[in-house]
Every structure is written in structure tokens, then in C-alpha cells.
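Team,

Forwarding the record for the chain on the shared tracking sheet. I've put the sequence and predicted structure together so nobody has to dig through attachments.
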Amino acid sequence: MAKDFKVIQKSSAVLSEPRYIVVDSKTGVVLDDAQGYGYTSQKKAYAAYGYKMNSGARRDKERKIRAFLKEYPYLETDFAQDLEVWGFEDGKERKSSMNS
């Protein structure tokens, strides 16, 4: 994710309301412009760009985990059994163990 970015107002004669785009702080290169339309607020521009950058990192991490588990499939079943022993069910802690 580009760490040095900022949201600026896009100048447009066609649209009556202001639109915002994400640009690189150092070079001024447009990083995200909502397919040319721009975002309706600065907050939405920051949120969308953050989501896009984090979801890519999350997908990469998930791919690496799947590749690892494909190479070592026995680890996945051992982990699932450990979760049951520790009181987790489908990735969530059982309520009865929380109340104890």
C-alpha cells in the first residue's frame, strides 16, 4: 500500500458537486479515482482506497495459507481438533465456556 497518499478535490466542469481522488503525495500520480467519477467525499475516498489496499494484502495472505495447507493437509485437521478441545466451535468460542 502506498503510504504517502492524499485525497484532493477533482476539478470538473461537468459535475456540479465536488469529487475527490486519491493521489501519491510525492509524484501526484492518481492512485484511485473511482473509475474516473471521483468520490463524493474525502472520507469515502480514504475508506475505499484503504479497503482496496487491505483486501489485496488479505487475499495474498489467504492464498499463502491455502498453499501451505495444500502442501501439509494433516495440519488443517489437527488444528480443527485443537479448536474443539479448546472450546471453540466453527471459529467462535462457545458461550458456556465464556460464562464460567
